[in-house]
Structures are given as structure tokens and as C-alpha cells.
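Marked as duplicate of an earlier ticket. Keeping the data here for the record.
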Amino acid sequence: MHVRHVIALDVGGTGMKAALVGADGTLLHEARRATGRERGADAVVRSILDFADDLRAHGREHFGGSAVAAGVAVPGIVDSEAGVAVYAANLGWRDLPMRELLSERLDGLPVALGHDVRTGGLAEGRIGAGQGADRFLFVPLGTGISCAIGIDGAIEAGAHGYAGEIGHVVVRPDGPDCGCGQRGCLETLASAAAVTRAWAKASGDRTADAADCAKAVESGDPRAIAVWRDAVDALAAGLVTALTLLDPRTLIIGGGLAEAGETLFTPLRAAVEERVTFQKLPSIVPAALGDTAGCLGAGLLAWDLLATDSEVSA
């Protein structure tokens, strides 16, 4: 029996998540592999192409035919229209013609390229926590912080593909140096990586991470409470800047820190509410799709590409 499907790939700094996705968004097959960035940019690209090829073979074997398109989400700066992965600091590539390389490897299959966070936001907006919201922000709190700006079912990329870089909004001008060249950027203070650094220092345990900090907060450790409060305070400042500019109906918070549940959401909602004056308070909700958001979004991009192609040819 032939089941129409697309290949979906979500490439992260450490791991790649992939799936074969049916026309109704069903995950027909899921797989994961290490990105292997320590082997260099060329090896990472080879791994992505090999993974896509293996997924195509799996589709042929188990679903009665090849995939009809592919979608891939990558980190860093992405020019979706040109199909170019412009820059990714932790994967070491610049101006990589990802769409062309993948399409070539997959014998001319149509390929859609997306930015990882915007792609995850697309999935959260259509089939996750943002369903029914005409305006939303999807903010995953991971190693860094970026956001997807959802408007009427689409994600706003900006004129140059740089929209949503909320992690580089300065929330404390006297704060820590950021790799971008500024000081006190939101991601230096409120990312999962920032909380991990602060808690490792405060606890004296170099192996402690953000999840350990959240557990210590729950058990009433005053050092953890101080670290957590600092991060929540910075996050609230950044989010209020965003909602002042964009007036979203829903704020969807995801990534590693969101896994702390109400340990994060209760103080965060209070801190945002405390700061707003004339602004309308959006609902602040956890992401619904977890770490499959990017992969599901890549599948949606691939199906969207086919829909657009058929409209053009019609």
C-alpha cells in the first residue's frame, strides 16, 4: 500500500531528529542521529544528506514508494527563499546551498529549508499550543534564545531572515558579555545554558545544570531560588519588550527550561504581569510538541511546498 509522505529533518547542534510525515501530519516513522559537529562542517553536511537518503529508502521499503518532498530545519541564519544556510556558529558552515545539495542527493525532489526555531514555531502555531491564535510568539529557552513570530498561520522571517532574535535584546546593559558583541543580552541571563552556568557557580558543583537548579528551587534551596529569580526577572523583561512591540495573543514558552513546568510558569506569569502597564497581557503557555516541534514543522514546510507548486502549475 502506498502512503504519500515527506521527509522531515531537524538539525541541531548535537543531534538530528528526523521523520517521515503523512499528509495529515502523522509521524509514520521517527529516527535520531548524532550531528557529529566535532568532525567538521563537511562531515555534518554528509551526515544530513546520508540521513535523508536513508529515510527515503525506508519510505520505499515500508510505505510503498518514495517521499514526495523534503523539509529541513537548521540553526543559525537561514535564507529560506534562496535555500541557503547562511551561517551557523556551532556547526561551522557559511553560505551552504543546503536546498540544492539535498535536492541533488534525493534525485531532484522538492526541498524546503527553514530556520529551526521558526520551523518549530510553525508547528506549535498550527498543530500545537498556538492553535487558534492569530498572533503568537514561540520562545524556546535552550542553549540560546530565539523566537518565532506567528501571524495568521505564517511565521514572519523579516526582510533578511533575522526576525525573532529576542535573545539579543539587551535587558541588563551592565550584564555579562555576549558573543554577539553586546552586554546583558537576554540569552546571557535567561537561557538554559545561562541558568546552568549560574547554578554551577552558586552551588559549587561544576556538573550541575538548569534542571538541577529547578529541583533545588522546588526543595527550597535559597541559592537556587536567587539564581532562578534572576533568570525569570531577565526573561520577563525581554518578553515585555517583545509584547510591547508585537502584541501577541499567546506566548508559547518551550525548550529545556520550560520542562520545569510551574516552577517556571508561575513566577514568570507574575513577573510579566507586574511589568505591563498599558499592554494587554497575553496568555503564557508551555509548548505542546516538545522536541518534535522542529521535525513536525519541517514536514509542514515540505507539504506547503507541494501545495504551492500545485497552485503554481494550476
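See parent ticket for discussion. The CA atoms of residues 76 and 88 lie 4 Å apart.
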